[in-house]
Amino acid sequence: MLLIKLWNYLSGYVIIKIVGEYGERLLNQAALKKLYLWDIKRQNGNVLTCKISVRGFIKLARLAKKTRCRIYILQRVGLFFIILKLKKRKSFLFGALLFIAAIYLLSSFIWSIEIICSDDELRISVIEDLRQWGLKEGIFKYGIDKEYYIDKLMTEYKDVAWSEIEIRGSRLIVELVKKQLPPELEENTPCDIIASKDGIIEEIIALRGEALVEPGQTVSQGDVLITGKITLGQDVYNEEKEGSNTLLVHAQGIVKARVWYQKDVKVPLVEVKK
């Protein structure tokens, strides 16, 4: 039904009034000629109203003469009639097309750059570097290599854990997440190394302490990766530590893991890429 309404609007149709004693006969002849009329309503004894396509109206007008009915156009509806009006105003049509072309052209460029970051100093530094790298207001947005600039940011700023570049219309949005560094502990303070995020362990080397996970193992945030509690042999005794066979140390090591970042974005239902 929606497709039929859309087609009728695009091709154009008229709302007409049929006046005459033989209105029903006219409708029957129109049906025999396979003319499509809809929303047929009787206003009074000799008056009917309905809708019909532009082409169908021309054929119906010929049939009306044979049935002694008169047809009046009440309203013209659809894109067909809009185009006819615009053709009569060529200067207006040219101006409208020029305006649309200008809007499309202007929307193809970046006119504002927004940096989303909790650190004001980092925000200022990043926008200055982006302009030096050529990413600034007024550039053609379809030629921007987002991955290139993301790699540049991650290489230049070691304290950035994650970055993303998104283009919304004429706005370019750069989102940065700084690394959350743990508080520094003194060398002699016992501690464990724990997972800051969910992930899969790819490499683990315990320099001090004992590794509790292995490569390929899935871990959750808060899991202990390298413990500072070392179990000693039976012949070792340390009365200052916890138990006779336990030593608490400041855990150190190298842990590499594969982690994921999630971000929610809004995208149009239909997107055209050029």
How is this structure best described in words?
- With 274 residues, the protein is an alpha+beta fold.
- It has helices at 2-11, 23-32, 54-66, 79-88, 90-106, 120-132, 146-156; strands at residues 13-19, 37-44, 47-53, 70-77, 112-116, 160-168, 171-178, 193-194, 199-208, 210-211, 218-219, 224-227, 229-231, 246-248, 252-258.
- The chain has a four-stranded antiparallel sheet with strand order 2-3-1-4. It has a three-stranded mixed sheet with strand order 5-7-6, covered by helices on one side.
- The mean pLDDT is 84.
Helix and strand arrangement:
Elements: H1 2-11, E1 13-19, H2 23-32, E2 37-44, E3 47-53, H3 54-66, E4 70-77, H4 79-88, H5 90-106, E5 112-116, H6 120-132, H7 146-156, E6 160-168, E7 171-178, E8 193-194, E9 199-208, E10 210-211, E11 218-219, E12 224-227, E13 229-231, E14 246-248, E15 252-258
Parallel strand pairs: 5-7
Antiparallel strand pairs: 1-3, 1-4, 2-3, 6-7, 8-12, 9-11, 9-15, 10-12, 13-14
